[in-house]
Amino acid sequence: MTGATRDRFRTLAARTGGIAQRLADRAHRDYRGGMARPNDEVAALLQEYSDLLSISGGAAYKVRAYEKAARAISGHPQDVSAMDADTLRSVPGVGKAIADKVLEYLRTGSVRALDALRDEIPSGVRDLTAIPNLGPRKAATLYQDLGIASTDELVEAIHAGRLRDIPGFGAKTEENILHGVELTRQSEERVHLDTAMEQAEELVERLLSVDGCQRCTHAGSLRRFAETIGDVDILAAAGEPRPLMDAFTEQEPVAEVTAAGEKKSSIRTTDGLRIDLRVVPLSAWGAALQYFTGSRTHNIRTREIAGNAGLKLSEYGLFDAETDQLVVSETEEEVYNRLGLPWIPPPLREDRGEIEVARKRELPDIVSETDIRGDLHTHTDLTDGVSPLEDMVATAAERGYAYYAVTDHAPGLPMHRMTDEKALAQRERVRELDGAYRGMRLLHGSELNIGPDGAVDWPEEFLNGFDICVASVHTHFNQPREEMTRRLVRACENPCVNIIGHPTARLIGRRPAIDADLDEVFRTCARTRTALEINASPHRLDLRDEDILLAKKYGVRFAVNSDAHSAVHLAGLRYGVGTAQRGWLTSEDVINTWPMHRLRRFLRPPS
Length: 607
Ligand code: DGT
Ligand code: CA
Ligand code: CA
Ligand code: ZN
Description:
The protein has 607 residues and is of the alpha/beta class. It folds into 4 domains: 3-187, DNA polymerase beta, N-terminal domain-like (DNA polymerase, domain 1), CATH 1.10.150.110; 189-280, 2-Layer Sandwich (Beta Polymerase, domain 2), CATH 3.30.460.10; 293-362, DNA polymerase, thumb domain (Beta Polymerase, domain 3, 2-Layer Sandwich), CATH 3.30.210; 369-603, TIM Barrel. The structure holds 2'-deoxyguanosine-5'-triphosphate, calcium ion (CA) (2 copies) and zinc ion. Pfam families: DNA_pol_B_thumb, HHH_5, HHH_8, PHP.
């Protein structure tokens, strides 16, 4: 499996046109300001080393060891840049060879062994590994056997039929690779939600501390929790924009200032993320925030309403069309109210009927992060997580949860090496920990694999021992539509399955959604009282907003889960909540906002 870091890293590498260059740039900068955590930096480096080792035909155990260490470091709560050799080696999966490389990087800004591999393998070949459905091994074969050293050459070779003779590359593989190339190209200019959010929040913090800054927040697609972000829009209010503009364009790590105006500037960070800053007078705050939050189509509607009422709406305010007199502009509420509408939450501003519903005063009371009482899909280091059970539970308690489910992988995926004994031993530990935190109950569960025929791991007697079962598609993603539909329907009909995990199995920018008749699946979920997951991982966001809207029509329940593989990632739940909001869900729709007794009845209805 690939970790979150690798995804981020690969997208970034693709965008900035070369891993080596980006890291070389980076080695000379410090980590403060807009930069990813040092842990993510180091993890990206180890992941790259693993990929390059794999391309160069390195031993499989070594390839895996570096990959595992990358994930462990990415998910580790302590800052690696502050660790000495001994502390480093206490991180699970980090042995002497890996610790030495990390220390070398932290000391010198580079790793000689990695530089040697980079010299050996052309950058175009490294780009190939970022293509979904290809991966390092196949990339190596293509390079060695056919001399293919770039994405363009790959596409050409496929069209010329040159891959046909290579073992392991059938017509279906070719089609999948072309699809992967398409996905990569589409996602090159957009970033995942967490990358944008983390940098935006840091920047807003910094701008708020600049003298004269009266207000500052992010707007645009990020405020609407869109699934990927083209650029980050920051809005600030100040009497005098200059100091803010200077702080913005002079911050580290700006790769390029693409526009520097009096009221608007744009930069590109060394990560390749584009950020706009606009500074407005405080009196125009509401109108500007409404305008720059978008979406474009929502704004077209609000301007239309203004026009029909003899008004004019712009980023400067709402004006009388005839006299040009300012009507309102200070707050978003005033702007909406003057248009005859209540304030509309940003995730709903997509012109999907929100204006009409708002006008009738029937906007849903959408679910919020504070409504969430617990997380129902999480992993530990017993399978592919990196944090021990105790750390996951302690962090969950800090988040104020009323309940928390541990759902490690089931035996069907051999790489996780789950066994009956391990599951039962974990259950003992969960039962012992239950009650250790005031007010938080623990559920012992599992994430089952939905096999190609819809069957799941373990016989029913064994499954009945779990408090909760999530079931997900992890293999056979390319089944024909009818088979895939039958597979999901059968999983829903299994009385032991409570939640379908990441239901379409897509990875944003990397793997398309599975092909199934979603109407049929959602109808079955409603009938069998099986909840659909809204997986909060910013690489998944699955179900996505439009599928949620469809499922809701069938009366399905949902569970917003982090699918955290480390304690730090439990906080990622907010991206799932944002997605649920985009799907117009209320807390009534979401089972993990319910009190424990109601949740228990849903999971194990009295027979
Ligand atoms: P993105 O950046 O592609 O993820 O999506 P947005 O929605 O952040 O789009 P962006 O950054 O181009 O513009 C931010 C907001 O500013 C957008 O949602 C609505 C508003 N806006 C910008 N340009 C226009 C325009 O030409 N017409 C209208 N109606 N609104 C605009
Ligand atoms: Ca934007
Ligand atoms: Ca923009
Ligand atoms: Zn899963």
